Amino acid sequence: MSRLFVIGGARSGKSRYAQSRVEALPGRLAFIATAEAQDAEMADRIARHQADRGPRWMSVEAPMDLAAALHRAEAEADVILVDCLTLWLSNLMLAERDLDHAVAEFEAAVSECCVPLVMVANEVGYGIVPMNALARRFRDEAGWLNQRTAAIADEVMLVAAGLPLKLKGS
Known about the structure:
Its EC number is 2.7.1.156, 2.7.7.62. Catalyzes ATP-dependent phosphorylation of adenosylcobinamide and addition of GMP to adenosylcobinamide phosphate. Belongs to the CobU/CobP family. InterPro entries: CobU/CobP, P-loop_NTPase. By secondary structure, the protein is of the alpha/beta class. It has a single domain (about 5-170), classed as P-loop containing nucleotide triphosphate hydrolases (Rossmann fold, 3-Layer(aba) Sandwich), CATH 3.40.50.300. The chain contains 6 helices and 7 strands; from the N terminus they run E-H-E-H-E-H-E-H-H-E-H-E-E. It has a 7-stranded mixed β-sheet with strand order 3-2-4-5-1-6-7, with helices on both faces. It is globular, with a radius of gyration of 15 Å. The model has no long low-confidence stretch (mean pLDDT about 95).
């Protein structure tokens, strides 16, 4: 595994699957978190996820600058897990950042990464067309980000109902 992209719907088991793939590898593990604890419920979710990871894991918070976080983690870890690209995209959109620039920097950092890398994202394109312009733009941007990430990944897995399905790779 060099670059693995794991995609799935909410509560599909994608993060659990990605974590299990990473933990099966030897060495120091880095978790790049894109979520921010902006309310008590999210803080609780983050705490549960942190507790679920063991002492092999170091954490890097990267709500915006994912490319720099990848470079930092690569210097200290043997395997990197990024969870999740969809939250990162949402953070960028809400901060009105230049998405094309941020995604291009991310793609370059992924291409330069010399350790196994697992990236997680939500598949948001299975539902109905959202009613407002921001939600439609988010759905579109997420779909394009997922396509670009899948293109640079060596392996792509879709997880549904806790079951992984290989979309790309040997």
